[in-house]
């Protein structure tokens, strides 16, 4: 593949209005405060901040320089030379002692049976692979950021649910206190509810600590510490549950492996061309300065460099290149395998989470209805405090399970979209930032 189509321009989404090099050179600091952020904004901030993006972008620049180096073989090679010191030449006309020489030579490659062209093609394939690896790096950074974003949302919801459960338990505690004061129940009921409230407060503290950790992790990734996080876009939800139509030709990791396979094939052809001669034209003009006579030596020659025997070195190089080609071919299969495996697991997780969500909804409804019935029966002395505390525990379990199922589904959706390289398009990042992205060509 001589030229890479980068239709979505994903490989250039490295910052908002800044180049990759500038973003890579900015020192990492603690997160700046921000009122609110969205998942899309968080990912864009992460692109600008994550060192792996700048590192892979620099690799693309190296690949382009390698192409320029390979192409330079077709350009005229101009050199200057000079020397000083004693040099004696003896021929039929006598001896000539030279003290100083200087001159200029020009060499132009004429034909080398594919050595240079294959070297150029090989370098271009490597550069294209680096570009696709950059796309894969962007997807990886986006996935990492999105997963951390989901964890912040998860524990924010769990903290709110735990706070609501504490309020509900405190309401039960007040009921028990009033009944104990009226002589309708023993003080042990009140003590039991206080114990349960204290246990739930400990759970709340645990969730709050985990939330702080998740927010700190996301803040380091994005460089922004938002006070509020917008809901996860529904666009990333999995709609197609079939794995039979995966288009591997659009997935960067597979494309990068294919380009490396092409590079290895060009490498074989380049090495095989070593069996053939290299033809070039060389012209030069050299001044020889001596004590008794000075003169110019002008030359223009057609040079043919043809290897006869190199001890089997070329044959060994060919075998090495063929081995590299076989390794590259297996890497293409491995990339496809990894995509299919990740997509399959993510899809299974999504379907499982969706099934749990449906069950959790019914659990929450049933537990909430049971709570109201038990409260009424407790006031009529038909239920014990243990029954009331037990149903509050059921409500908490149902709500927390529902929250975890919902965010497990979002985690699976993010993994699935990333495996198919759809996460960024689903968030609309390419279309909205194309005009502000730096040019890597």
UniProtKB/TrEMBL annotation:
Keyword match Zinc: no
GO molecular function: efflux transmembrane transporter activity; porin activity
Compartment(s): Cell outer membrane
Region forming the signal peptide: 1-23
Gene3D superfamilies: Outer membrane efflux proteins (OEP)
Predominant localisation class: membrane
Keywords: Cell outer membrane, Membrane, Signal, Transmembrane, Transmembrane beta strand, Transport
InterPro entries: OMP_efflux, T1SS_OMP_TolC, TolC-like
Pfam families: OEP
Family (UniProt): Belongs to the outer membrane factor (OMF) (TC 1.B.17) family.
Cited PANTHER family: OUTER MEMBRANE EFFLUX PROTEIN (PTHR30026:SF22), OUTER MEMBRANE PROTEIN TOLC (PTHR30026)
Record's protein name: Outer membrane protein tolC (1.B.17.1.1)
